[in-house]
Write a structure and sequence with these properties.
Elements: H1 24-37, H2 44-56, E1 77-82, E2 87-92, E3 98-102, H3 111-115, H4 129-133, H5 146-157, E4 161-163, H6 164-173, H7 184-204, E5 210-212, H8 226-229, H9 241-246, H10 248-253, E6 263-265, H11 269-279, H12 282-288
Parallel strand pairs: 3-6, 4-5
Antiparallel strand pairs: 1-2, 2-3
């Protein structure tokens, strides 16, 4: 090759010389290596993803390790717990999506919870009673069908859609704000401050626009003059407490009807009823919008 210099190609060998067999010790070493070198993350969602990626790098894949009775070892489930939010996260070998189980949403003494094997399929210990009584003051209107309805209106009327959730994540992930997805109280005025000016611009330009999301304050009318208000229709999607108590399974089943949620919560009639009692905005929706 003479004086020619061979440059390094690719991203390097990374795990080279780390043990690669299926033994517990070797897998522990690989997991420790991944955990030590995984870039630090800030938000809970990012850290949950980090946990599952790290453990996924050492999971047992069926067909790789055969035991004495002829069966193959495999990782039945992967799980983690967040002490910050009192939330248990898990997925299974055949169900890849990460499911979130906020312990505060479950009543440890509820017989329905104990009988629902799809929630605690691995005999998890019952959450402490203190957690079951804890209230979350910052719930948003999730799983009501806002995004799906907006998509259907787009397809039928060809009206463009502004998703406040997408706007939120774009601003957060681009570093334009120090807020996180968990900062609900601060996100509403921040996002609405931007969205209301977009709405005004659309009206001034005689353009149709659907704005969809949770971060719209009930006193939104205060930000518009009468010239603008005549062009705006505000619609609230409301699920009554009775509906929530009867259709918990349906709400969970259609949780990914329009978007793939990173964390999908398995709702029960009890948790939905408690959530409705803590976050009921039916009166506000009736007063300020169309339900």
């Amino acid at each position: 090759m003479g004086r020619a210099r061979a440059e390094r190609m690719g991203l390097g060998v990374g795990n080279a010389r780390n043990p690669g067999d299926a033994s517990s010790v070797s897998r522990f070493v690989r997991a420790a290596y991944a955990n030590a070198n995984y870039p630090a993350k800030q938000t809970e969602a990012e850290n949950v993803a980090r946990l599952f990626h790290t453990l996924g790098s050492v999971q047992m894949v069926e067909g790789c390790a055969k035991v004495a009775d002829g069966r193959f070892e495999k990782t039945l489930f992967t799980s983690g717990y967040s002490a910050a939010t009192n939330t248990y996260y898990a997925n299974t070998y055949d169900r890849f999506e990460i499911r979130a189980f906020p312990f505060a949403e479950f009543d440890a003494d509820d017989d329905a919870l104990k009988q629902d094997r799809s929630i605690f399929a691995w005999n998890l210990p019952a959450p402490p009673r203190e957690s079951a009584k804890h209230d979350h003051p910052r719930h948003r209107a999730s799983h009501t069908g806002k995004t799906l309805l907006a998509q259907q209106l787009l397809e039928r009327y060809r009206y463009p859609v502004l998703s406040l959730d997408l706007l939120k994540m774009g601003l957060i992930r681009s570093g334009r704000t120090d807020l996180t997805p968990e900062d609900d109280d601060a996100l509403t005025p921040y996002l609405w401050g931007i969205a209301k000016e977009i709405v005004k611009t659309a009206i001034e330009n005689s353009q149709n626009l659907i704005v969809e999301g949770c971060c719209i304050p009930f006193n939104w009318r205060d930000d518009f003059d009468s010239d603008y208000l005549g062009h705006i229709e505000f619609v609230c999607l409301v699920m009554t407490k009775r509906y929530l108590e009867k259709h918990g399974d349906d709400i969970s089943a259609y949780g990914n009807a329009i978007e793939r949620r990173l964390f999908s919560t398995r709702w029960t009639s009890t948790s939905l009823s408690r959530r409705a009692s803590a976050t009921s905005h039916h009166a506000e929706c009736t007063t300020f919008g169309t339900s």
